[in-house]
Automatic annotation (TrEMBL):
<keyword id="KW-1133">Transmembrane helix</keyword>
<keyword id="KW-0813">Transport</keyword>
<protein>
    <submittedName>
        <fullName>GABA permease, putative</fullName>
    </submittedName>
</protein>
<feature type="transmembrane region" description="Helical">
    <location>
        <begin position="469"/>
        <end position="488"/>
    </location>
</feature>
<feature type="transmembrane region" description="Helical">
    <location>
        <begin position="185"/>
        <end position="206"/>
    </location>
</feature>
<feature type="transmembrane region" description="Helical">
    <location>
        <begin position="35"/>
        <end position="58"/>
    </location>
</feature>
<dbReference type="InterPro" id="IPR002293">
    <property type="entry name" value="AA/rel_permease1"/>
</dbReference>
<feature type="transmembrane region" description="Helical">
    <location>
        <begin position="153"/>
        <end position="173"/>
    </location>
</feature>
<feature type="transmembrane region" description="Helical">
    <location>
        <begin position="393"/>
        <end position="417"/>
    </location>
</feature>
<dbReference type="Pfam" id="PF13520">
    <property type="entry name" value="AA_permease_2"/>
</dbReference>
<dbReference type="GO" id="GO:0016020">
    <property type="term" value="C:membrane"/>
</dbReference>
<dbReference type="GO" id="GO:0022857">
    <property type="term" value="F:transmembrane transporter activity"/>
</dbReference>
<feature type="transmembrane region" description="Helical">
    <location>
        <begin position="111"/>
        <end position="133"/>
    </location>
</feature>
<feature type="transmembrane region" description="Helical">
    <location>
        <begin position="438"/>
        <end position="457"/>
    </location>
</feature>
<keyword id="KW-0812">Transmembrane</keyword>
<feature type="transmembrane region" description="Helical">
    <location>
        <begin position="226"/>
        <end position="245"/>
    </location>
</feature>
<feature type="transmembrane region" description="Helical">
    <location>
        <begin position="265"/>
        <end position="286"/>
    </location>
</feature>
Amino acid sequence: MSIEAKTEYTVGDAEADQGVGQSNHVKPKFGKLSMLSLSVSLMATWEALCSTMVSGLVSGGPPALIYGFIIAFVGSLATAASLAELVSMFPTAGGQYHFISKLAPLHMRKGLSWLVGWISTFGWIAIAASAPFSSGTLIQGLLVLNYEDYVFHRWHGTMIYWAILVISAIANIQGSRLLPLFEYLTLGFHVVAFIIVLVVICVVSPTKHAPEFVFVDVINNSGWGSTGIAWCVGMLSSCYILVGYDGAIHLCEEMTKPRTDIPKVMISTILINGTMGFGFLVAILFCMGDLNSALQTTTGYPIIQIFYNITGNVHSATALSSTIVIMAGISSIPLLTSTSRMIWVLARDKAFPASSLLSKTNERRQVPANAVVLTSVLLGLLGLINIGSTSAFNAIISLTVFGLEISYLIPICFLLYQRVISPQSLTPGPWSMGGYGIWINALSICFLVFTCVFLLFPSYQPVTAANMNYASLVFGAVCICSGAYWLFKGRKVYEGPIFSELVD
């Protein structure tokens, strides 16, 4: 079947198991286990929870974290299952915006896939910034804990953040062939560190909170007059730690069996990280000690103070916190990998400036080096937010979750529409939810709409220039840039994803 006939091609018709549009310049290097290792380390749920739990503690307290995590887990699992079904139909590195090119009506296909491509890439740039930002500022927090004469400046954290980005870029370009081995080691560290930290906090903690503190007592220190709104805003941390499961999709052209392996990897990632994250959350809330001291800590991260409350020793608290620093730092490498692949695929479809340059791959190292470099530069610019805002991390997290969830929401809406209006047009891939699909798609859409509404709310009241949530401003700027480039050049050169010849 020719490329020209693709608009008449039944949605999801069986194609070769290799990724649609698979590049001849990048050889498959990831197996199912190495991809699972990469996906688990991308999310690094229990470590990410340590970095972001302040939002839930302030806006609702421990119950907000517990029940918010459960809701986020169920909603994320439904969303991952919906996207897994789509990638089983269309195994392509473009992911969400390629799905749109297959599912959306012809009259809106080009413009909508362009928009979703930019939004998805924007979300991945934000999530790729969050891990090195967390690692860099946690290092600052440990300096505050260990050295009384250290003067905290936000630009110090930005400098450390930039250093981690440079290391990640070098690892992606110079060590690209070793990425699968690196992911195995990362997964091992992720699991071993989890066990060690969990055992230590449960055994060493001098006191344990009552179950009512963890599951019942709502605390609202956010300034929001409504506890309900505060609780919804506090769900940000739970949504963030379970987002990014589409990272495997953007590397599926570097796998040998993406139609069957990617869906399994995505679902397994949610189940593994969700289980570890919830277990760690319950343990840390029971053992955390005084809540006010955690919220008022000068380190900038309640988890550092919580570890100090538990151990009563600066060095022990530093050792426990260092596991989070290390995991966040090494997670920066696979995050940069997935994000650079998004830019590479966009450039390949002529949806990004300097497409001819960014779509090139380094033949010797089998990596899109130019895309890696540009991604690193964009991440470096995003780090400047930290210099001017005390809520920079919240803004980056909001950008991450909002951008990615919008990119999930649009194709899933079209998938549900096709299921209801024209079910005969859908031919499932090897991985399918069958008759349950319509209900799981609907659950995913409800979850995504609900969370997206509150992701742009400011975390605290009253709102000031320093603590406001700049996510909406940055997201609007991205949409304006995307629209301007579409009018200037994009609509003339962009034809939507061009898939390689389809195999009957």
